[in-house]
């Protein structure tokens, strides 16, 4: 390990040259926004001759940036710390392909972008379904509509998730009402490019809302749309300054607080324990910041005197976790008489404690999967009791911490096992082999490749496992609806029944295998499987600290007994099973699953019912051992028939007469089926292997040609049906 003074000094010199010597905030420390850059790329150049067509984009550099910054997977936008695309990639990708389509460029880029949106919208949004950010709920539907209007069909493929986002947008629109209402920041008008036409925003409203610098709330995308809608020169001048200043893509906001960015750099360097190597540079930055700032409590504690702001922060505490943590840390350094700081510290601590046990994904500033650990560390151990070098180590580990499950999720998302080790690698290689084998067999037998479909199914399942693990680790208690939505996927019954259905029917459409378009009978199977498991495994999962529908109901009904919660879940299960049975046996038209596939769903339900009928036999090593052996390994045994000597003519005649007397005896109202001692019927059990079954004899009846013939035949037929039903056919 190289740790010599010379080696360290070399690294320090390199960092000093790359970061501190040429401190370019926008091109070095602020990531470009693909979404905003795409909107600037859509602006057509002004043509002096109004009667001639537009000659191209006004900002060609922005269009070139879009062309050259598409990720290998097909999306534009940011990755999270695990290398996966964030939900921001969906509207960003749509905006970029619209910009390319407008100028008839990058057909390959457009196709890759469309494929990404169609294939990944469901996956990216599932985990954020119940906590979609406000900006996303406003912007994403607008980009889908814009792409559709441009001739880029995506609405059909994303309709499942789009309906939920549209509902969320409608809730925001109804709650906030006026687009100029500044009670909610940023106001709706700052999303001008994404607001629906029903808002009826006119030119006068836009011009009144412009800042002095010509921007619309410092938003490049909103200002770009404002310029295209109004032609206002101030907007154009703002956009031109923006492009000159930011040569490597447009930031999401301009101008930004450059001093805050510099202070953030100092904070990171200091907390990593590297301040001693850059003391001169840090001193310059701090001196400059202090000379321009009023460092008193009221400069950042003003909100404690505004009841409306306090209420807004409390109602939306998930969005303010980063800010509250910074305020709490800042108040570690209080001087006497700074009562405002005490109030701010108390308020920040209350909100942090409220959200500490949740994974606060609503806050777009959070980038560490271990953020809750950082909060817990700050709240549990006072700053004055922490040694610097131990604090530095904690910060390094917190920033470098990546949970193995999140790494596995990234690998499953890319379907690439590189970087995995231990159990994660074993699981991935096993599933990759399974998917490959099934896909090869299907290609050979049915002539179509279902590899991507199978991967999508397993990616969805692994995502559900990750959500449940995150819930358990963070102590998060979901609603019963939220739990069942994830739990019916994590039980993984669809991973068995859907691939098998492909072999039963070669014409099964690929869209039937897409997670977002599961058939009703598949959803019923998934839900029933989860409920069966929860009823029999709540005790084990309670000990393991896991969530279970029975336990959720019990927690939500403190006066209820465990038997009440079990009965409640059983009622839901009975409804689901009844619906599934109806779907399996009834014909619902040409769009329904083929009959063999539906019966396979029913068979799969019976398997789960066997596992969890009276106890959790799935987790037992022995309870089903005998049935498994009989069902798979032990061949059935049959008795060797004995040769029966042929009867004499006299015996044959006598048998015919006795057989005919059977019907007469029944017809005359006798209650007992008395065959006589000499009738050749034996109900004696015959031993077959370990079991004893009744084997009916083979005999013939001779019926006389009388009026009683139909009745006698009916007895024979009904007896046969009763026997078959008794055998379970």
Automatic annotation (TrEMBL):
SUPFAM superfamilies attached to this UniProt entry: Terpenoid cyclases/Protein prenyltransferases (SSF48239), Terpenoid synthases (SSF48576)
Terpene synthase metal-binding domain boundaries: 411-577
Keyword Metal-binding: yes
Cofactor(s), names only, from the UniProt record: Mg(2+)
Keyword line: Lyase, Magnesium, Metal-binding
Gene Ontology MF annotations: magnesium ion binding; terpene synthase activity
A family per Pfam: Terpene_synth_C
UniProt-listed GO biological process terms: diterpenoid biosynthetic process
Gene3D superfamilies per UniProt: 1.50.10.160, Farnesyl Diphosphate Synthase, Terpene synthase, N-terminal domain
Keyword Ligase: no
Taxonomic superkingdom: Eukaryota
PANTHER family noted in UniProt: (E,E)-GERANYLLINALOOL SYNTHASE (PTHR31739:SF25), ENT-COPALYL DIPHOSPHATE SYNTHASE, CHLOROPLASTIC (PTHR31739)
Protein name, entry field: Terpene synthase metal-binding domain-containing protein
Organism of derivation: Rhododendron griersonianum
Lineage: Eukaryota, Viridiplantae, Streptophyta, Embryophyta, Tracheophyta
